[in-house]
Each structure stands twice: as C-alpha cells, then as structure tokens.
Amino acid sequence: MTLRWEAFLEEVRERGEYDTTQEAERAARVVLALLGAHLVGDVRAQLAARLPETMALILLNPLQAAEPLNPERFVRATAAWIEGATEATALWDIGAVLSTVADAAGDDLTGRILLQLPPGYDLLFGHPTAGHDPDHPHAAADPRPAGPRKAPQP
Questions:
Q1: What is the pLDDT of residue 66?
Q2: What is the pLDDT of residues 100-113, one digit of tens each?
Q3: Is the dihedral of CA 138, 142, 99, 94 positive or negative?
Q4: What is the 3-state secondary structure of the chain?
Q5: How far apart are CA 46 and CA 14, in angstroms?
Q6: How many other C-beta atoms are found inside a 10 Å radius of the C-beta of residue 129?
C-alpha cells in the first residue's frame, strides 16, 4: 500500500522531531536521492511503488554514485547535502527517513533492500540483523543519536 504524501512526511517529522514539515521533507528528499543511487531493478521499483509519488520520483531519479557508499560515507554525504548539518544530525535525519521507509516497505522488501546495500545499513534502517556487533557505534535499535537533533548554534 502506498503511503500518502502527508502521512509519510508526518511520520518522518515525528520520528525526526522536526519543528516543521519542511524540515522533514528536506531530509526525506536528500536521503531518498542518495538511497536511490544504491538500489536497482525490481527492488527500487517496488519501494518506489510504496512511497508517495514525489518521493518515488526522487528515488527513481537519484543522485549519481560512482560506487556504493558504506554507511559512514552515506552519513557524510547526507551531511554534505543538508545545509548546516553535521554527521550527528545527518545520522538523525537518516534514521527518521529510513525507518519510515522500512515501515512502508515491510519486512520482506526491507530485507531485499538491505541485500543490495553494503553491510551496516540495517542499523541505519533501524532493523539490526542477527549477528551484528552490539558494540558497533551505530548498533542502537533506535538509529537516532542520543541528545538534541539540531547542531548547536554558535
């Protein structure tokens, strides 16, 4: 079932504890554009079919990636694309968006998505797989970092 635009953004807004829907939309656009560069074939098409049309188009017309980004580089790339973001706030943004995407996709499709991604993305989606190192710095079941989402303002 495809999520409605408003429902998708509201879910991201709540999970990311954003003040506005615009902040949630900005995070969703960047994360989905980067994710789309890593997915191919039926998996990408099936995920797009479960997202609101605007988000599906972003996923299907991704930013180009020369090679798959490991999770740490994905976080850095997200931070680079979101004005004023740090790696900590980008991790928060990614967790809010990808956990919403995982819920929309369901367990089976999320599992197939994770098979196309480098190891460690299960943590970014908030779906740690068995055998994952619980002492890994991103191993928390909640993919958002502790503390405030927003970077301190000078």
A1: 76
A2: 999 999 999 999 99
A3: negative
A4: CCCCHHHHHHHHHHHHCCCCHHHHHHHHHHHHHHHHCCCCHHHHHHHHHCCCHHHHHHHHCCCCCCCCCCHHHHHHHHHHHCCCCCHHHHHHHHHHHHHHHHHHHHHHHHHHHHHHCCCCHHHHCCCCCCCCCCCCCCCCCCCCCCCCCCCCCC
A5: 25
A6: 13
